[in-house]
Amino acid sequence: MTILYTKLAHVYHEMYQSIFDYRKDFRQWDSILKRYGSKRVLELGCGAGDLAKYFLRAGYVYTGMDLAQPMIDIARRETPEARFVCGDMRRFSLARKFDAVVIGGRSFTYMTANDDVQNALRCIRRALKAGGILAFDNFAAERIFETLPRRSTERIVFGEKIITRRSKTWANLGGGWTWNWDAAYMVRAEGKTRTFRDSCVLRAFTRDELQLFLSLAGFTPVRLKRSGAVILTVAKAS
User: Fold this and answer.
1) What is the per-residue pLDDT for 188?
2) How far apart (Å, rounded) are the C-alpha atoms in residues 48 and 22?
3) Sequence-distant (≥ 6) Cβ neighbours of residue 129 within 8 angstroms
4) Does domain 143-203 have CATH number 2.20.130?
5) Strands 61-66 and 83-86: what pairing?
6) What confidence category does residue 109 fall into, taking pLDDT thresholds of 50, 70 and 90?
7) Which residue in 42, 77, 195, 225 has a CA-CA distance of 20 to 30 Å to 30?
């Protein structure tokens, strides 16, 4: 697991307040869930639980799950009224059934091996009621690989703290449409700068791949819409 979600969990939480528009993201999921009458929702890869408060305010019965315990700790601190559990989307089992499962923030990109994808989708299928909805976003392979290799720099100001991330990405194609991501984080606070280095492998998908994986796991794809480098997918448990 990348240290961004463990050792640097607090850095992630602070950075992504600027990188993600959580209110806008929630509106997207809310419009989908309302269309199917979903009320009991499981968010996988919930991170620091930044969407939880929006789900709760809108009247959903919400549960958030993340693999990284430090992220769950932040989520419980920030939104104590929500239910959070630490778990792996590739191998989980919960007593309750859900109307919908949501995976935002392109978290599915960490399912780099075919077994990861299949195991996650099978667990999700078992967690859903018959006719339940899976909605998630992920990177579109054709757009990601057009821009590799790539270097980028992001600078985030959070209160008195300045966080700079310098990233380098390049293709490896070791298993599907995978690529390497190396990053250096420079965190400046109280007149001192600390540097952390991190690396991971990520995966993008084509529409055809997603449709096949979903069908094999017992889902009927109902929507696969690409917008820029992201594919929004909605599928119904068969």
Assistant:
1) 96
2) 12
3) 97, 98, 99, 237
4) yes
5) parallel
6) very high
7) 77
How many angstroms separate the Cα of 158 from the Cα of each of 4, 6, 78, 188, 198?
Answer: 17, 19, 16, 10, 21
In the chain, what are the domain boundaries? 3-139+204-237, 143-203
CATH 3.40.50.150 assigned to domain 3-139+204-237? The reply is yes
Does the pLDDT at position 1 exceed 80?
no
Q: Contact, 44 vs 107, CB < 8 A? A: yes
The Cα–Cα gap between 232 and 134 comes to: 11
Using CA atoms of 206, 207, 210, 211 in order, give the dihedral in degrees to the nearest 10.
Answer: -150
Residue labelled with tokens 């009320």: 39
User: Considering the entire predicted model, what is its pTM?
Assistant: 0.95
Spatial separation of the C-alpha atoms in residues 53 and 81, rounded to whole Å: 9
Distance CA 2, CA 210 (A): 24
